[in-house]
């Protein structure tokens, strides 16, 4: 009986469905969707990509003009020997009798640190060896270290120099808000800073020459309109590996050309974050330190739109001239210019991530990437732990002026198991995969020869993304 009932119901449903006038035609739906996409592509997508292409080409031309202007300005400076000493007043500072007008001004030396176990002794020692009246400068070590062993070693080193008569302050804070900028901001709140007129800043891996203050402070003393004196960087390990050569090429151009031209023509000039001397009044007038940090890739998008053509000068000639001009900073590494371009493009993505993270005040993992280990005494002396994880403690008497800490003896930290997104740079992996897919599209369909560059650039992104270049620091809580 039930079977008969179900059979009747099924026949009735089939009869009703057959009388329904509406039919779903798959081919018609696909054709309709294709028509909508064609209209959307013609009216919205293609014009938008054309606009982006025009903006990209305009920016490329602007960069070319800027590079040519920078090189011309530097040539004029070198040809006419218009160094800073000729453009500004500079005289050595001599202390007058009874503390006269030419008495050495009070200077604050700031050294922000974060787990700097390799170089903390070198940087603190170099700062303490600066040639300046001992009663006219104070060294401020701003330690944000999260490793308690490193914090104890840094504090011990500060106490050692303090026992020798050096005016050095060891400062810590309860959190790492704002990271380096936050540490610098907190350092200026101490009462003893009110007597200082100038601030010299050095990262922990910088070792200033002993006459650094004698050469820089006079520019600020004799030229009240100057707020910042930025010095050049030199690299002790430029020839260590290929990546250090790449970094030297980028930074040499920045210091030898960009900053030289900017200073010469009194245009916008940026602080490099270290190896500079500030007038404290200028920092206060600007509102103090803030916690926030402040195109060739267009070709990848237009490959998918044959109706859009990139002019040859925009994709080959102008970028080539820009690259050659930037390579002038380090002529000895000119033969590495192709590999350097690939590396710079990868680092551009990394800088964008850092800038966006700082501007949006994004929390979470800090955008860190270490190319080489920092050089220091800890790397030269291997700790003798006898196969154990114990740390050897050195008992010293801080009252003895000639005591020497020959070795911090901090063993290498054991790598901990981490999650996938903490072991690798996912954004670099994503971009590298997209670039390689664009190269495959060019090989199979476009056939414009772009795949040669795209495959190389994509592999460069993947190499960095998988962590085969440099060291990804562990996440801190």
TrEMBL record:
Cited InterPro entries: Glyco_trans_2-like, Nucleotide-diphossugar_trans
Keyword Iron: no
Keyword list, A-Z: Cell wall biogenesis/degradation, Glycosyltransferase, Golgi apparatus, Membrane, Transferase, Transmembrane, Transmembrane helix
Gene Ontology MF terms in the entry: glucomannan 4-beta-mannosyltransferase activity; mannan synthase activity
Biological-process GO terms, alphabetical: cell wall organization
Main location: Golgi
Domain Glycosyltransferase 2-like: residue ranges: 110-259
SUPFAM superfamilies: Nucleotide-diphospho-sugar transferases
This enzyme's EC code(s): 2.4.1.32
Gene3D superfamilies, per database record: Spore Coat Polysaccharide Biosynthesis Protein SpsA, Chain A
Membrane-topology descriptor: Multi-pass membrane protein
EC main group: transferase
Pfam families hit by this protein: Glycos_transf_2
Segments traversing the membrane: 51-77, 324-343, 424-444, 450-469
PANTHER family the UniProt entry points to: GLUCOMANNAN 4-BETA-MANNOSYLTRANSFERASE 11-RELATED (PTHR32044:SF58), GLUCOMANNAN 4-BETA-MANNOSYLTRANSFERASE 9 (PTHR32044)
Family that this chain belongs to: Belongs to the glycosyltransferase 2 family. Plant cellulose synthase-like A subfamily.
Listed name of the protein: glucomannan 4-beta-mannosyltransferase
Gene name of the encoded protein: gb03096
């Amino acid at each position: 009986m039930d079977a008969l009932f179900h059979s009747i119901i099924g026949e009735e449903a089939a009869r009703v469905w057959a009388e329904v006038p509406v039919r779903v035609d798959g081919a018609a739906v696909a054709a309709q969707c294709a028509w909508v996409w064609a209209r959307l592509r013609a009216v919205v997508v293609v014009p938008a990509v054309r606009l982006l292409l025009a903006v990209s080409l305009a920016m490329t031309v602007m960069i070319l003009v800027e590079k040519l202007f920078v090189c011309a300005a530097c040539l004029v400076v070198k040809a006419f020997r218009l160094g800073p000493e000729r453009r500004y007043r500079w005289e050595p500072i001599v202390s007058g009798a009874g503390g006269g007008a030419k008495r050495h001004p009070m200077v604050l030396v700031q050294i922000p640190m974060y787990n700097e176990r390799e170089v903390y002794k070198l940087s603190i020692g170099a700062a303490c060896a600066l040639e300046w009246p001992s009663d006219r400068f104070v060294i401020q070590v701003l330690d944000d270290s999260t490793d308690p062993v490193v914090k104890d070693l840094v504090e011990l080193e500060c106490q050692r120099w303090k026992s020798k008569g050096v005016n050095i302050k060891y400062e810590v804070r309860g959190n790492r808000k704002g990271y380096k900028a936050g540490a610098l901001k907190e350092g200026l709140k101490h009462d003893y800073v009110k007597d200082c007129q100038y601030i010299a800043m050095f990262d922990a891996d910088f070792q200033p020459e002993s006459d650094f203050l004698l050469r820089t402070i006079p520019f600020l003393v004799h030229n009240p309109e100057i707020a910042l004196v930025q010095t050049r960087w030199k690299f002790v390990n430029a020839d260590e590996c290929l990546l250090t050569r790449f970094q030297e090429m980028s930074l040499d151009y920045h210091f030898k050309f960009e900053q030289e031209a900017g200073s010469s023509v009194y245009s916008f000039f940026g602080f490099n974050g270290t190896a500079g001397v500030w007038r404290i009044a200028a920092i206060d007038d600007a509102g103090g330190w803030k916690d926030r940090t402040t195109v060739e890739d267009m070709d990848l998008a237009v490959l998918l739109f044959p109706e859009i053509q990139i002019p040859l000068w925009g994709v080959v000639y102008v970028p080539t001239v820009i690259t050659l001009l930037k390579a002038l900073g380090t002529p000895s590494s000119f033969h590495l210019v192709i590999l350097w371009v690939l590396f710079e493009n990868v680092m551009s993505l990394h800088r964008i991530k850092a800038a966006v993270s700082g501007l949006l005040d994004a929390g979470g993992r800090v955008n860190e990437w270490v190319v080489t280990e920092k050089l220091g005494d800890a790397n030269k002396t291997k700790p003798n732990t006898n196969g154990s994880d114990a740390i050897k403690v050195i008992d010293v008497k801080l009252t003895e002026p000639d005591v020497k800490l020959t070795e911090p003896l901090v063993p290498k930290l054991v790598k901990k198991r981490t999650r996938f997104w903490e072991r690798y740079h996912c954004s670099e992996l994503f971009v590298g995969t997209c670039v390689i897919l664009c190269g495959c599209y060019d090989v199979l369909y476009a056939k414009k020869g772009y795949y040669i560059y795209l495959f190389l650039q994509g592999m460069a992104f993947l190499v960095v993304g998988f962590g085969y270049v440099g060291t990804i620091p562990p996440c801190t809580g």
